[in-house]
Specification:
The complex is a heterotrimer of chains A (345), B (893) and C (272). Chain A has a single domain, classed as Formate dehydrogenase/DMSO reductase domain (Formate dehydrogenase/DMSO reductase fold, Up-down Bundle), CATH 1.20.1630. Helix content of chain A is 67%, strand content 1%. Chain A contains 13 helices and 2 strands. The termini of chain A are far apart. Among the domains of chain B are: 271 residues, Dimethylsulfoxide Reductase, domain 2 (3-Layer(aba) Sandwich), CATH 3.40.228; 108 residues, Rossmann fold (3-Layer(aba) Sandwich); 177 residues, Beta Barrel (Barwin-like endoglucanases), CATH 2.40.40. Chain C has 2 domains: 224 residues, Alpha-Beta Plaits; 38 residues. Chain C contains 7 helices and 10 strands. In chain C, the strands form 4 sheets. A 4-stranded mixed beta sheet of chain C has the order 8-1-10-9. Classes of the chains: A mainly alpha (345), B alpha/beta (893), C alpha+beta (272). Chains in contact: A-B, A-C, B-C. Chains B and C meet through helix 3, helix 4, helix 24 and strand 26 of B and helix 1 and strand 3 of C. The structure holds ligand MGD (2 copies), iron/sulfur cluster (5 copies) and molybdenum atom (MO).
Chain lengths: 345, 893, 272
Amino acid sequence: MSTVRYKTSPDPVSTDGRDIDRKIAELAGEAADQQASGAAGKHIEKQAGTWTQLPQPHAADPTYYDRPLLNESVWGWAIPTYYYVGGLAGASLALGAALELQHAAKFDRLIRRCHWIGFLGCCVSGALLVYDLGKPQRFLNMLRVFRPTSPMNVGAWILSGTSGASAAAFFFRQAGYAAGLFGMALATYTGVLVSNTAVPLWNASRKVLPVLFAASAVTSAGSLFELFDQDEDEARVTRAFGSVGKLAEIAASVIAEQHASQVARVGRPFQRGFSGFLWRTAAVLTAGSVVMNLLPRPTRGKRLASGILGTVGSLLMRFALEQAGNASARDPRASFHSQREPLAQ
Amino acid sequence: MGTSFGRGGATDFPGDIVNSDVIVIEGSNMAECHPVAFRWVMKARERGATLIHVDPRFTRTSAVSDIHVPIRAGSDIAFLGGIIRYIIENERYFKDYVVHYTNAPAIINKDFKDTEDLDGLFSGWQKDKGHYQTRTWMYEDVDPEPAGGERESEAAKKGQPIQRQPIQAEHTDLTLQHPRCVFQIVKRHYSRYTPEMVEETCGIPKQLFLKVAETLCRNSGRERTGVFIYAVGWTQHSVGVQYIRAAAIMQLLLGNMGRPGGGVIALRGHASIQGSTDIPTLYNLLPGYLPMPKAKHDKDLETYLKLNQSPSGWWGEYTKYFVSLMKAWYGPAATQQNDWCYNYLPTLTGDHSHMNTVVDMADGTVKGYFVMGENPVAGSMHGALQRKGLRQLDWLVVRDFQLTETADFWREAPEIERGEVKPQDIATEVFFFPAAAHTEKDGSFTNTQRLLQWHHKAIDPPGDARSELDFIFKLGRRLKRLYQYEYADPRNWPIRDLIWDYPTQGPLEEPDAEAVLHEINGYTVHDGKPVEGFTSLKEDGSTACGAWIYSGCYRGGVNMTARRKPHWEQNWVAPEWGWAWPHNRRILYNRASADPQGQPWSERKALVWWDEKKQQWTGHDVPDFIVERPPDYRPGKEARGKDTISGIDPFVMQSDGKGWIFVPTGLQDGPLPTHYEPQESVIQNPLYGQQCNPERMEWMRKDNPYHQPYNDPRFPYLITTYRLTEHHTAGGMSRWLSWLSELQPEMFCEVSPELAKECKLKNGGWATIRTMRGEIEARVLVTNRIPPLRIKGRIIHQIGLPYHWSSKGLIRGDAANELIGFVADPNVSIQESKAFTGMIEPGRKSKGRRHVTSGRLVKKLPGREQDRDLPQARHKPETSHGFKAMETKEGNV
Amino acid sequence: MPGQPQAAPVKGFFTDTTLCIGCKACEVACKQWNQLPDDGFLFTGMSYDNTAHLGASTWRHVAFIERPAPLHPQNEGAFSWLFSSDVCKHCARAGCLEACPTGAIIRTEFGSVYVQPDVCNGCGYCIVSCPFGVIDRREEDGRAWKCTLCYDRLRADMQPACAKSCPTESIQFGNLEDLRKQARERVEKLHSQGMREAYLYGESAASQPGTEGLHAFFLLVDKPEVYNLPPDPIVPTKTVKDAWTAMAAGALGIALAALGAAFFAHKNGAQS
Ligand SMILES: Nc1nc2c(c(=O)[nH]1)N[C@H]1C(S)=C(S)[C@@H](COP(=O)(O)OP(=O)(O)OC[C@H]3O[C@@H](n4cnc5c(=O)[nH]c(N)nc54)[C@H](O)[C@@H]3O)O[C@H]1N2
Ligand SMILES: Nc1nc2c(c(=O)[nH]1)N[C@H]1C(S)=C(S)[C@@H](COP(=O)(O)OP(=O)(O)OC[C@H]3O[C@@H](n4cnc5c(=O)[nH]c(N)nc54)[C@H](O)[C@@H]3O)O[C@H]1N2
Ligand code: SF4
Ligand code: SF4
Ligand code: SF4
Ligand code: SF4
Ligand code: SF4
Ligand SMILES: [Mo]
């Protein structure tokens, strides 16, 4: 417990907001060990601003003071970044395995790169998750159980599996195939993860999001490889791989938006506001990237440009999706309409 | 209530509300302020009762009511008068009840003149004294003795006791036709309170008024009953007592008193506020509503007793109670020879109620002040004047849980923030003592329904915190030690001789609270055995009793107040939960639940009845009557005391045993409720030339300026103040708690969308509210819950202000009481904080200015002020009892 | 299983909003019993609601709705004020529980949905998976919290603190089956008194298939939206099959893209 000066209180008060003098009483309630700095104001201000209209619900389309129905996700930058990194790693490992199947020595360097990116990607992924959770051992809590209803739990196992397999791939050829398979799951399960929520925009586009994530993972991998020194064979692989991904990503994002927009209010964050801006920008960047790929006479310059555009585009897409989801969670009408309209039919 | 029925307490208990068929809550926001008792209202509603809420605002009570009646604050007498008229004109009164149990048949003195005759004054106004002489209000040829209120005023004024006799049948007209009988007087008095007049005065549409009146009438009579519930929305007016009187008249006419699901329930505020009038913290009462001796006329015991002992009714027992009290206090020192130490008692020299005391502090005549469990700087009227008073003191003792605004008035206050007063210039020595909370001490609460409930200490108080009992006891011990060496001077004897010997216990040596209860209950002096009840008390000094009305609470040495048998294990009256005074009776005057022959008016509403076989009263509740007195008993001419109570006199405390529709004596400001406007109003009195209560207490001082009586262009809006569920009164127990603070974190004002538009106020934004006394700022809550009223085509806007905030605590805001001046009801000195005028403007402009320190806040209007009084009532002299405040040379501002 | 507590009858809440007087005793009782810190002081301007929403440290929340419409039988004036004390619904199919990757959220022997604070890792997945916006994470604490249905009190044979403190019995606690019966009777009674708009929200799987019924259900007199309740909530796992299918398609797509790219490059490379 710390001594806090409440904003509205003239005297500094020693409290963590519980009204219990810990010198006299011990806390034993269910929430006794809930950490609270006592920095009052923060929580409620996050939840609510000041309502400036007359308090009356709109009879035809009511809300409760336009307050959000849902709690938006508490995930910070680390989680969309993780989607990107995990996708990147997964797609790389899949590509590595596919190349392995060709049994061609000219791809050895590329395969090793795939494995490195896969392995490092897994490490970074783990780090990002731990960062978001706050404590390393908290990650392990997810491995206490196996819970198929929870894509996050399934994902934790996938990430663990991918990590293991990608590490093993350095030593055993066969492990590379396993890593490739795990990688495909790693690159796509996050799409299920966001779909399996009450967030209207994510849930409404659930039939597309895993595909979008898959495509974007391919984009990410393809684009990243374009930033390395490549010989012609390698460049051909990555260009082909990348352009398929990018084209698919653009297509999937259009379909995702369509799915979400079946209920106008749900899809709105794709079109409006900061999230809409990010979403559009990401698509433009990815389109730019694929244009660079498809222009005749590939040059190093075009390749680098494509790599940068594709990387930023796919990263941005993850952030845009996160933002759009949060925006739709904040909008009570997104939920209400998405549930009312099917009822009305 | 004391003057109407005989006792100053709620006549019913909340649990009985379930038996009501109609419930009127007026002048209270019961759901918000008494949520736990409100459960019974909800249950009654589930059983089909109709709930009516009359309130300027649509509150949480209104939200669950069947009918909400928006009313202009300060106009309730017009509304109730309208209902009384409706009942009488349409002959909807309960005739048998009215004839036998009320004073409707009584014939009044032929010199009586009504407000109808005198444009708002009753007969007896003394121009030179600025006061009523109430002789003309008396029954013809009989001077009844009031059971409550100002018990001896008439005699006092003449300086000698009046010869009194019991009231006899020949002074009544049971046909209610005599032109001077109470019934006819009442009928005339309210004849102008028509539905149209109600609409014009209260802003209540005629249709709505008629609906309420009809609902009330329909739910009264033999088979049905209705209850009236009020709290401080009624009392805090300069005519507060008369509001309650109006409800009493209504309930008597409808025959709702003393019956299940009937009565008038006063919701008491603090946990033991009823207790603090029973065993009073009031300056003018001794325990059990025995008046304090007055310096002017209570020269000796004999006079004092003569003036207070009624020849008829229960107050005939006065001497027994008084002597027993003196025996409890002075023990062996109190003897017949020395008049039971009568002259040890201090005598009153004037009005020492709260506001007068504060004014005396401000004027430098009161030097020291104990504040225990109160936070007047935030909770009492006119914060700036309160602090001015505190600044002039030599010493101030505050006992509380927190360093309240009162304890810290020298460090944190608007005038200090503004730099107008500097802490180093304040000479008051402040002592702050931490107080123990109720969980940290043994003791009892006496609540709304006169129910004493014991609370056991759960934990020792922390640190230096101690109970009041401990503090006072030890302070008393020290005083006695100081006084014991000065035997010679008789002035020291009252303290020297005081019995002050409660046993102490525990490591903190706290006095034993049960020992105090034992003393309150009373005991026989020779063996210390608890008495059975007040009927065992004697006037020969053989018994001692700390408060006769509580006698019986420790019967047989058992702490009756600690009984906790749940209501589902006993009958619905639940007599074995705690203990209620008097004599554990839960519904007062319950004799009236039976007809004159002693049988219930109806099976559905049976409560107590006369059992022919056993020859005694019996029933669900303890009979509030002489148990063995048969219904057909009639006293003879020679009867005195209790013997004058006939078999059909349910109101045993009254000298005539009847419920008083007309109060011949005991009230300062008239025998019948009459509509007067508040001290500051938005309209001129539509009924009388006399604008305000002529007897109101007002303080004409430079530091207490008033607005124009009505239509003051500088202050066009009507303001009312109230509570929120989330906070408690002056905030000492809620603004320091985060869980409550978060629920209502800032001071706000409630305004209608129309007013918001008119004044450019924005929901969630800031507003400044101003009166002559000061300005405050508040957040704006725009809401349809405080509708503007339409009166004679004019729109009346009201502003609502909760009063819980002040400058300290986890959350702070400006105190509503900074706006309110000193004005009070003449009978009980309660302030008028429910209706006054003011101005509201958008924005956070408040500079915290206060008239007391900053000088005039608003320009004086040119020309002479309108009048609050008729010419003959304009003169307000200073009086020894201080019912009129002093007129200062500085005059009105 | 040894150590597994014996199943008691399923317990729940029936919150009858027509009996609520908005006193917030339930909010405070919950905070006090569970020792929850305050959520900060903000004047919201939303009628008398200054806590706005359920959250990590507010497990009961009373909504205040000022409506420009009359409520039967108050037919004077076109205005009414509704109160409703909201709480975790302890859904029969609980989105939070099904989403929780650590198994921190369990179903207790009383049928309630309980978060074990020592297992919760703060991943926040339950937060987006609750269709009612109930469970939340406290910034400084980093774990998810919500109503426990007073698990500790139930184990001690006491009723939940909020129900205990409710002066008007707006919050009724008991065996779910009994409550459902009671609630249906109550609705019938209200209908017969003319309050036709009264209905039960989430009292059974039939009335709310998306959650298969709520263990904490409500009697309402206006659309759920008015109270900030979803009209037809669906636990996300009910629709997630679509996403798993899409994931399979996506994975297949990656495989095809990788194989295709590798094959194409290999082929073309060999030619040159
Ligand atoms: N939560 C909570 N409960 C409390 C308290 C508290 O501070 N907080 N305080 C306790 C105390 S000390 C007391 S005395 C009681 C007081 O209990 P109440 O008297 O019920 O409380 P108030 O809110 O002061 O006033 C009641 C209502 O009177 C209305 N009113 C104002 N002027 C008029 C008028 O002229 N006519 C009519 N008909 N109505 C009017 C107001 O709009 C308000 O709704 O509550 C007790 N209970
Ligand atoms: N404008 C306006 N003003 C009003 C009213 C209104 O309606 N409008 N209502 C009036 C009414 S009805 C009332 S009752 C007053 C209330 O006004 P106050 O009595 O001045 O206010 P409280 O905050 O109740 O003060 C009680 C104090 O006692 C302390 N306390 C509690 N228990 C104990 C104890 O055991 N021992 C000691 N020593 N201290 C204790 C609390 O911490 C608190 O600070 O306000 C009046 N003022
Ligand atoms: S605070 Fe106490 S007295 Fe007031 S309603 Fe609650 S329980 Fe009753
Ligand atoms: S309401 Fe939300 S938090 Fe509560 S059980 Fe249902 S899904 Fe979980
Ligand atoms: S935050 Fe805690 S309770 Fe919620 S899903 Fe994650 S581990 Fe489970
Ligand atoms: S059941 Fe317990 S934890 Fe849940 S809201 Fe009620 S008091 Fe709070
Ligand atoms: S305690 Fe009961 S009446 Fe009070 S707000 Fe909560 S549910 Fe409503
Ligand atoms: Mo009070």
